[in-house]
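Title: Prediction job returns without error message
Component: structure pipeline
Severity: low
Priority: P3
Assignee: unassigned

Description:
Job completed but the reporter wants confirmation the result is attached to the right record. Sequence as submitted:
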Amino acid sequence: MTIHHLTHNKIRLALHEVRPGSGRPLLLLHGLGEQSPASVPDVAAAWPGPVMALDFTGHGASTVPAGGGYSAEILLGDADVALAHLGEATVLGRGLGGYIALLLAGARATQVRGAVICDGPGLWGGPSGPTSTSFVTLEDARTCPDPYALLELSRDLRPRDYAALFARLAVENSGMEEPITVASVVRPPWLEAVLDEMGVTVGDAAQALATYCAG
């Protein structure tokens, strides 16, 4: 499997070419504590183009930084670097990766041609208003997945309407009727807020990918 090494600030990111092909790529974003799959997941088996998978900072073959400092925006930056490398792409995210897929779809609405949010480990909860995180020091933390990532990304520090805003940006600016599909069964509060937005649909992940591929 070919690995493309990309740079996000001082981080060396691993973008895996899980399966080569031509046409619009499918970008896979893994869940918290996971890494890119070694083969194409069954749900994406029918995707006709290249299938790519990104290891987030502190995961898989990407750099493990010293001292933590993780946030959803850091991982959004990782995904944005991958998207800049690929050009237009459809995004499939699990758990935390689904959250980042949503943020990417809103931030780069014209480049993300459909985002699918699936079940997987990652952000749960979220306060009713902005809050702050706690500070801890972990020993022997330079392992992968980074324990700091597991701790700092286990909960969302942002209110529900933060996620809803990105869904709204995707709907308003993508030119697609339904740019976001929620395929997950487990729906934390941020995802329930996203589902309240017009243009967000609920559906089967494989069927959603087929629809986005044809669009």
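Comment from assignee: result matches the submitted record. The two ends are 28 Å apart (CA to CA).
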